[in-house]
Amino acid sequence: MRYSDAVLKRVRELKRVGSLEGEHVGTGEVGTLDDGTVMRIQVRRDGDRITEARFKVFGCSAAIASASLVAEWLEGATMDEARALTPERIVQTLDLAPERAHVARLAVDAARKAVADGGRPKAEGGMNDSDH
Amino acid sequence: MIYLDHHATTPVDARVLETMLPFFTEKFGNAASRQHRWGWDASDAVEQARKQIAALIGAGSKDIVFTSGATEANNLAIKGLARATEGTERADVRRDHIVTIATEHQAVLDPIGRLHRQGWRVTVVPVESDGLVDVKLLDDAITERTLLVSVMTANNEIGVLQPIRAIADAAHAKGALLHTDAVQAIGKVPFDVGALDVDFASISAHKVYGPKGVGALYVRRRRDIKIAAEIDGGGHERGMRSGTLNVPGIVGFGRAADIAREEMPAESKRVAALRDRLLERLKAATDGLSVNGAMPPRLPGNLNVSFAGIDGEALLVSLDDIAVSSGAACTQAEPSHVLTALGLPKERALASLRFGIGRSTTVEDVDYAAEKISSVVARLRQMSPV
Q: What are the structural domain ranges in chain B?
């Protein structure tokens, strides 16, 4: 399977990998080991804006690249901008093959969950709030 | 960039290329031209190569039928024998049954699958968790109606060496013939058609530092062994495979066989030591590593390992300067049928790497690969949320 340069670059030069702790952190976790992909995206919110985003992934390179791209987009975005993310935009930006498009949907689902979770006034339970 | 994928293919050895070159230009003759010097030279060169290839596998030169590669050789042996036997008897019995094993290459499974769809009965015998077939189980599958047993000598993914001689004895005891896909074995481990008592063997040049596009089928010369041609035409190769011979390719195959035969004793030791070093270094640096397949018996240059807790495809993609191959793909993909046949769970089969160490591999290559892989595995595990 050949990959676009956009995917390869993101997998080989990882940015925003990790976890967030503390207040105003929202967590979105999607996927199962059985399906082969587990993705977690976390955002730190300051008012209406996301100041930090981090991700962790168990899965293939397309999943890693999708989560990395979403984390990059989320940082600095407003809540409305974050909710407007679409899988199509990820597929287009990373030039994902159609059979890999499902990982873009997972990344968007994780982002939406993280944003919804971070919308609460206090989110120290966020880390354990994931949907398995 | 480090090439550790010698089961897929090998580079043409410089000595092989040098031998081949004149046969593209000044010695361009057709080996079937009987009336002039160009034809005689080409024909002499082909017969010389036939001897060299036969010597590598302990055959007589008249037992060698040149083909376009091992896939064609497998098709010719399996379908050619089936077609030549259909409607007749072998050892006084009507035979309509073929036996093979679950870890065969697609180039064996697919022709047998086609025969199955055309009405042949087929038994695919499973392998043990170490990738070896239990000869007793195989023996039970062979009946008096079995025409052919086809079992590979060395597996292309996990490198395990099947007990071919014992399988030949089991087949012959019931009047069946034995074909072996020996493409990964020749030039790497001793392979002698006489000692192993095989009736057909498929081999290829490009796995032994020869050119792509040329291979051969060993066919035991005996009155009761006949195969029907898959390609009809000028009656080349004693009527078993028509078509103008690929003279430069065949000459290259001959030289490659000669070199392999001379260098195998020392080279297989060197390659095995590199393989063992790679495994030791990986084990020392990485937890949760498991070897897939028996070791021994295994090809000296083969290593196949799984890493717990990571996705094999992500690992492969992260190894930007090491060429290896993987049983992996993205989610929803099916893992390798070979690793699945060993009973590996899907996630372990998907998180596997196959290393093929070869003639150009150095200690530095192996050390670099071990270090790089260990660091990528650690990074991927760190990245995992589970």
A: 12-259, 265-383
- Mutation target vs B (from A58, A96, A106, A127; most B CBs, 10 A cutoff): A58
- State whether B384 and A33 contact (CB < 8 Å): no
Structure tokens at B379: 């990074």
Q: Nearest residue on chain A to B326, judged by CA atoms? A: A1
Select which of B1, B330, B383, B386 is catalytic. Answer: B330
* CB-CB under 8 Å, B318 with A11: yes
B245 is catalytic: no
Closest CA to B71 of B39, B106, B34, B104: B106
A38 contacts B310? CB cut-off 8 A: no
Round to whole Å and give the CA distance between B185 and B208: 9
Per-residue pLDDT of chain B (386 residues), as tens digits, is: 999 999 999 999 999 999 999 999 999 999 999 999 999 999 999 999 999 999 999 999 999 999 999 999 999 999 999 999 988 888 788 999 999 999 999 999 999 999 999 999 999 999 999 999 999 999 999 999 999 999 999 999 999 999 999 999 999 999 999 999 999 999 999 999 999 999 999 999 999 999 999 999 999 999 999 999 999 999 999 999 999 999 999 999 999 999 999 999 999 999 999 999 999 999 999 999 999 999 999 999 999 999 998 988 899 889 989 999 876 544 446 788 999 999 998 888 888 999 999 999 999 999 999 999 999 999 999 999 98
Domains within chain A, CATH numbers bracketed: 5-117 (3.90.1010.10)
H or E segment at A131? Answer: none
Nearest-Cα distance to chain A for B111, in Å, is: 26
Nearest chain B residue to A1 by CA: give it.
B329
Domain B12-259, second-level architecture? 3-Layer(aba) Sandwich (3.40)
Which residues does chain A have within 8 Å of residue B386's beta carbon, measured at their own beta carbons? 33, 38, 58
Q: Which of chain B's residues have a Cβ under 8 Å away from the Cβ of A56?
A: 383-385
Could you name the CATH architecture of B265-383? Alpha-Beta Complex (3.90)
A12/B330 Cβ within 8 A = no
This complex has an ipTM of 0.84
